[in-house]
Amino acid sequence: MFSQIEHAGSTNPASACLTPKLMTQVSWPSDSGMSLSHPRTQLRDMQLVSVRDFRLAQVMIFAVEEINRNENLLPNVSLGYRIYDSCSSRLSSMSAIMAVMNNQEFAAEQKCNGQSPIHAIIGETESATTIILSRTTGPFKIPVISHSSACECLSNRKNYPSFFRTISSDYYQGRALALLVKHLGWTWVGAVNSDNDYGNNGMDIFLNAAKKEGICIEYSVKFYRTEPEKLIKVVNTMKRGTAKVIVAFVSFIEMGFLIDQLSIRNITGLQMIGVFGWIASQNLITPNTFHVMGGSLGFSLRKIYIDGFPDYAYKAFWDTAFPCSHRDGDYSQNEINCSTYEDILVLRNYNEEVAEHRYVSNVYKAVYAVAYALHSLLECKGQEGCEKTVTIQPHQVVEALKKVNFTVKFGERVWFDSTGAAIANYEVVNWQQDSDGSFQFKAVGYYDASLPPDQRFVLNTENIIWAGGQLQKPKSVCSESCPPGTRKAVQKGRPVCCYDCIPCADGEISNETDSNNCMQCPGEFWSNAEKNKCVLKAVEFLSFTEVMGIVLVFFSLFGIILECSLGSTVGFWAVLGYIGLLALLCFILAFLARTLPDNFNEAKFITFSMLIFCAVWITFIPSYVSSPGKFSVAVEIFAILASSFGLLFCIFAPKCYIILFKPEQNTKQHLMGKTQSKRITFLQNCQIDECFTVSCDNLTFQISHSSACECLSNRKDYPSFFRTISSDYHQGRALALLVKHLGWTWVGAVNSDTDYGNNGMAIFLNAAEKEGICVEYSVKFYRTDYEKLQKVVKTMKQSTAKVVVGFLAFFEMSLLVEQLSIQNVTGIQLIGVVGWTTSKNLITPSTFHVMGGSLGFALRKIHMEGFSDYINKYFWKTAFACSERDLSQDLYCSRNQDLIVLKNYTEDVSEQRFSSNVYKAVYAVAFALHSLLKCKEQGCAKALKIHPQQVVEALKKVNFTVKFGDHVWFDSTGAAIANYEVVNWQRHSSGSFQFKAVGYYDASLPPDQRFMINTEDIIWAGGQLEKPRSVCTESCPPGTRKAVQKGRPVCCYDCIPCADGEISNETDSNNCMQCPWEYWSNAEKNKCVLKAVEFLSFTEMMSIVLIFFSLFGVGTTAKIILECSLGSTVGFWAVLGYIGLLALMCFILAFLARTLPDNFNEAKFITFSMLIFCAVWITFIPAYVSSPGKFTPLYVTIIEIFLHSYILK
């Protein structure tokens, strides 16, 4: 429901308008079918009346009539109004707005004085419909003043320049909700909101504030009033949730539906935290709902009593708006048909307290705000009245509203901030039941944003009745606090408020509740049993009488034993060197014997024994460190014995086995025998069809050859995914490395708006930031979004970055290249990815002027032996037997003619760089099945049944080399290792185009060897031989420092010259260095040089002047000049003390003489001279410090002495 207001000239009946008035649109949503107009109220299509909205209409009319009676505000101008109903519907709201904007009858009837027919609109109640209203009226600059639309989105003055509200933005309410929850110690809450602009924006503010306050959200769900299925899901989520506190950022209508469902299902015990949209609504607090909602807590508008309104609402309103409401008898045909108002007339006896409708004061203030704005525009002056000739347009009202500042009769100051909103001022209310069974909204605190931060929020918890009528505050935490002796360990995949309490390890303690870490006890101390205190260690010894001691001694009798005195450095290194020598000899022997026949080759036994040896001593370190007391000695002895017996067992056990159990093999003939080579046979019982689908007992597998998105590395979401291409994690980092290597710090970024492009670009941007590369812009588009493509091209044209990184799929890149060619956008150095860098379809004569010189990563060119002949000869004969026949005579062949035309396509197959990945993918499946089917020379096991999960596990273990030399295996994410070529788009001397390899990136190499590029072989953008520059700001030379430009990236800076006495001797210095005391900066400010010694000469003009005044001073004042040797500390303090003593004596004399007659009292002269004295010497300090060379000790000092000396005279 909303209203309009208009004004015309004076109220003189002789004027052009008999009933001049200001018509202002006022709006809020209502469930009633009501349409009111002035001076007679008319209702049409009445269906259901909302008491809340009816009261708001009453207070609006009350305020208008009160203003019309005020002789000072608008003395000779009256306000009028019309009320429209939006029925709480966006569609109905739009219809009502159109009715306002197109009401010709109203315009012709009321616009008799040349004024605009609409000066202001007040409304609506809900943010969603207010957004529609403000967007519709915005182009006409008609001010809209809402009394309850609190969505933060409406603070955007760019989108809503003429919107105002007498309620504060939800920016404050969302933060206040987080403050309330934090104050009450709840760290585990649920969140429910309306699925509209109001709920979504408000909940976002709360969630961000809650995160900063350390509050965890178990769930955040939403629904709209027309979505019963989502409502049911919300209720089910609340029922299953473990959070006992629910923050409901819900509008009035959605809250009614939610409470109905909670009541029907009898879901109790939840502490609801509400917003002013519903927390103080009388319609929601009933006997049927109180068992569910009792104890609710939340922020509400303050209760305000408007003097005169209750009497008006109960009596005067009905007497004027509905004359038939107090008459009896029949009515003539010319009178109002009172039966039309039956639904409204029943409200005449509704005696609910008006003050509980907390929005009425906001409507009242909104109407008065319009009145004060018009008062200013019409230049109203008391008895003189308002200016009749002024023509007011809506945009003038907007500007006047920005400046209103007044106080209404109930004491509240009204003004609008820069966003057009009022300042936040809430009550904290609690749903309670009185002893007589009635319900009330008990005020238990407040939030006032106008106060200092530490005084804004006050809550009296002693007056609160909690959910379920409890007097004790409910607990709502995901995990209970961890006591001393434990530490918090966040549960995997859950918020930080959900943790386990892990006891501290031995030797560690925690002496606070909810400790994040345990502290290590000092070396001589140990943790007590409770792990909350460090105590001195008890000295323990390993006794020969203990079972462990006896066992270790027994096995030690069989071992090579060296006993060294404690702390013997020589003995320690002797033993360690001996062990290392043995290990080295064994490895050398194993290497030399690697080519011997298996029966003579014991390299595998030696190697395995050495692995056991290493494993024992690697595990020894953590075991020794973590073993308490005497057990550390036992661990050391065990490690020595285990490694010794491991060596003996691995080397000699196989020989003993042959001697004792296989004597037939212990012969010379067997030792001299030769083993036959074995041939691996693959998949005897399985077939691989032409579609690269492996079928074995109806089993199928998928391995991608080109899907590089990093998102596919998530083994939780894609547990059975593999690929023979590397993840874009490597390519994104490699792109940043390439850009950094070439010295470009200012680049643009374009990507496909897909998972591939978004994930890849995110990786590049993160890596670029770490490398110190600044990104001027990052834009994206999808192949079907032509408008976004045009914006991308426009951004590239307007940019100052000469290098653009294109993380694009082939389809998007082809569209971008087409647009760049059409618009002739040249001179941009494009950096590409494997998705398009080596695509023959993109490199054409029509695109090369734009794309020539492009640089990027590509898959390596690999020659697969036999593949070219197979494609050119055997493939067509076997797959298309009709390829040599006349296609027109064979129906089967005619269906394949689109494929057969490719037979004469002789492009080099090696340029199809993804072919090798497909080849490796097929072989990976073959090797996996070879393992599962236990294939041998005789064939594969036919009886084995293979399940998909078995193939997945087998693929994880494949490790083989294909015939063209590539090693194939999958890492933990199911991907291949990164191995790229760096290619450059060049034109050959013959005119043909080529992808010239100019470097590589191989992730299998050490970090300092992975990337190599030969810049001498590169042709740059536009066919240039010189590398282009792409920086935001040129380097700062020595003698200057960098100063980052405000609001821009760190690569954009100004070069500020160093100050006098400071230097910078490097390019791009961040700071200037201060020269030592005896030095000064040279003219270029890049070097410190010795200061030149200067003297004040008697022949200089300044010296002559100073000597003259000095002599004059001696002759008139007999002043004594003290000359001290340079650097005399005693002399300095003597002179300074003497001056101070004189000053003190002068002040004392002035004080004692203050009561003498004026003719004898010179206190004021002495005081004034002392003030001058102090002022001169205070200014001496900065002047002395800033004066260069000889002017420092002489000119400034002498001038200071002269000044205060002559002033004293």
Layout of helices and strands:
Layout: E1 2-6, E2 23-27, E3 36-37, H1 51-69, E4 82-84, H2 90-101, H3 104-110, E5 120-122, H4 127-137, E6 144-146, E7 163-165, H5 170-183, E8 188-194, H6 197-212, E9 216-223, H7 228-240, E10 245-249, H8 252-264, E11 271-274, H9 287-293, E12 297-301, H10 309-321, H11 342-345, H12 360-377, H13 394-403, E13 406-407, E14 413-414, E15 425-433, E16 439-448, E17 457-459, E18 486-490, E19 499-503, E20 508-509, E21 519-520, E22 525-527, E23 534-536, H14 547-556, H15 569-592, H16 603-626, H17 631-661, H18 668-672, E24 687-688, E25 694-695, H19 728-741, E26 746-752, H20 755-770, E27 774-781, H21 786-798, E28 803-807, H22 810-822, E29 829-832, H23 848-851, E30 855-859, H24 867-879, H25 891-895, H26 897-900, H27 915-932, H28 948-957, E31 960-961, E32 967-968, E33 979-987, E34 993-1002, E35 1011-1013, E36 1040-1044, E37 1053-1057, E38 1062-1063, E39 1073-1074, E40 1079-1081, E41 1088-1090, H29 1101-1117, H30 1129-1152, H31 1163-1186, H32 1195-1208
Parallel strand pairs: 2-5, 5-6, 6-7, 8-9, 8-10, 10-11, 11-12, 26-27, 26-28, 28-29, 29-30
Antiparallel strand pairs: 1-2, 1-4, 1-5, 3-4, 12-15, 13-14, 15-16, 16-17, 18-19, 20-21, 22-23, 24-25, 30-33, 31-32, 33-34, 34-35, 36-37, 38-39, 40-41
Helix pairs in contact: 1-10, 1-12, 2-4, 5-6, 8-9, 12-13, 14-17, 15-16, 16-17, 19-20, 27-28, 29-32, 30-31, 31-32
